[in-house]
Amino acid sequence: MRTHTRATAVVAAALLLYLLPAAQLSAQSGRPRVTASTAWVAAIAEAAGAEVLRVLAPIELRHPAEYDFRPSDVRHAVDADWLVWAGYEGFMRNLLQAVEFPAERVLLVHTNNSPPVLKEVVGGLAAELGTEDAFARWQTELDAMARKIEANAAAAGVAQIRLAVHEHHRVVAEWLGYNIVATFGPGELTPTGLRHVLAEEPQLIIDNWHMPSGEVLQGAGREYHALINFPGRAGTETLLDVLRYNAARLGILSEP
User: Fold this and answer.
1) Nearest-CA neighbor of 172 among 231, 229, 125, 126?
2) What domains lie within the chain, and their CATH numbers?
3) Secondary structure letter of residue 126 according to DSSP
4) Please, what is the Cα angle at 234 between 232 and 238, to 5 degrees?
5) Looking at the whole model, is its pTM more than 0.70?
6) Using one digit for the tens of pLDDT, what is the confidence trace for 127-156?
7) Residues 209-229 pLDDT 10s
8) Exposed/middle/buried for 155, CB within 10 Å: 0-12, 13-18, 19+?
9) What is the distance between the alpha carbons of residues 231 and 59, in angstroms, rounded to a whole number?
10) What is the distance between the alpha carbons of residues 168 and 188, in angstroms, rounded to a whole number?
C-alpha cells in the first residue's frame, strides 16, 4: 500500500511538471529560453539575459532577414519559451502561421545599434522576461563602451566631417555626432538620388554591409566604410562586438 501511494505521488509530480508552463520551468532551471529570428535579435535577447536555444537564420547569411522558412524550424519554435523577432522577417510570418504558439509568448524587438536605443530595447525585453538583473549587468558594460566611443568620436572631430549615411546607420551616426548632409538607401541609388548626395559634397560615406547602396559613391577623395548591423562578420557575436567593430572601421576605437 505504501509503495502504491509513493508511486502515485511520483506520477502526480511528473504530471504537474509536465503541465507547468514553460516559462515557469525555465524560471526554476535558469534563464528563459528563446528562439530568435536572426543573430541581431539573438544578441538583443542574450543581452537581456535570455538563453538562446536557436537562431533560425544562419549567421553566415549576409542579409539574414531573407532566410527561407524551413519546416524543421517548427521544432525549434516549440522547444522555446518565447519566440523573438523584429517584425520584418518574412520567414517568421510563415513560421507563426505553421505553429500554434501562444501570442503572448511572441515578442517583437526594435533593431537599432545606437546605445541609447539599445538600452531601451534590451531593457524592455528584460522586463518582459523577468531578467532585469542580467540587463543591469550588461548595461554597465554598454555604458562603459559607449562613453569611450563618444569621447573618441569627439576627439576625432567627427562633427566637422560631412557625412552621407545609409538610412540603416543614420541613428548611430547621429549618436556619434557626425555632420550628416545626406542619407541614402535602402535600395539602389537612383541617378537623381546620386546627384543629390554628391551635391552635398560628403567627405565620408557610411554604407550598410548587409545591403549596400552607396558603393557608387566611392572615389573622388571620399572615405567609404560599410558597417554592420547583424553580428556574424569578422567573428562578431554580441551587440558590443558590433559596436566595437563599427567604431574600429571608422577609426574611433582600436581593434580588440
Assistant:
1) 229
2) 2-138 (3.40.50.1980), 157-249 (3.40.50.1980)
3) H
4) 45
5) yes
6) 999 999 999 999 999 999 999 999 999 999
7) 999 999 999 999 999 999 999
8) exposed
9) 7
10) 14
